[in-house]
TrEMBL record:
InterPro entries per UniProt: DHC, Dynein_heavy_tail
Domain annotation Dynein heavy chain tail: ranges: 4-167
BP term (GO), one: microtubule-based movement
Gene: Dnah5_0
A Pfam family matched in the record: DHC_N1
A GO CC annotation given for this chain: axonemal dynein complex
Protein name: DYH5 protein
Organism from which the protein derives: Aegotheles bennettii
Origin organism lineage: Eukaryota, Metazoa, Chordata, Craniata, Vertebrata
Molecular function GO terms recorded: dynein intermediate chain binding; dynein light intermediate chain binding
Length: 169
């Protein structure tokens, strides 16, 4: 029982740390007012990397052994652990899925940033079709917040491109 208590303490520390990570990942992002769509892709890539690392850690033999011992001892801490495990898996899947969908826009980021306003406009219909496809098919990205953030960043990039064009001309 002493060993079980120590292991439960360890798991409770993990639970607290994971909850903190989940809370932080859901907080509002602080980004520059003029950040472009590449910042959206980078955000989700970073988040995917964090949650994949966390999943790898949770699936490590050390963690599995501790959880197995606590299962055998019918520990009450496992209920919280299992709930967090599900949340982490969902967050990792969301990030992975969002990265996959946002990569379909990656081909537009260069022309959006480097083209003249006239050339940039040639890419807008295809870009908007791709955004529409993401909205219609992505299980995670089709929320109002995600779409607003993406469209705002696309607009920011278009404005920055036009400003640069005007200053050079």
């Amino acid at each position: 029982t002493e060993v079980i208590e120590k292991l439960e303490e360890v798991v409770m520390v993990w639970i607290k740390q994971i909850r903190q990570l989940l809370v932080e990942s859901e907080q509002m992002r602080r980004e520059a007012d003029d950040s472009g769509p590449s910042a959206e892709l980078e955000h989700w890539k970073t988040r995917m990397s964090s949650f994949n690392s966390l999943l790898d850690e949770i699936k490590s033999s050390r963690v599995k052994k501790i959880i197995s011992i606590l299962q055998t001892a019918r520990s009450k801490t496992l209920k919280q652990w299992k709930e967090l495990d599900v949340k982490i898996t969902i967050a990792a899947n969301e990030a992975k899925d969002n990265v996959r969908y946002l990569y379909t826009l990656d081909k537009f980021f260069g022309p959006l940033a480097k083209a003249s306003p006239v050339t940039m406009m040639e890419h807008v219909p295809s870009l908007m079709n791709t955004v529409c496809m993401i909205f219609c098919t992505s299980p995670y990205y089709k929320t109002s917040e995600h779409m607003t953030s993406l469209l705002l960043k696309i607009t920011n990039q278009m404005i920055n491109t036009c400003k640069t064009y005007l200053c050079e001309g």
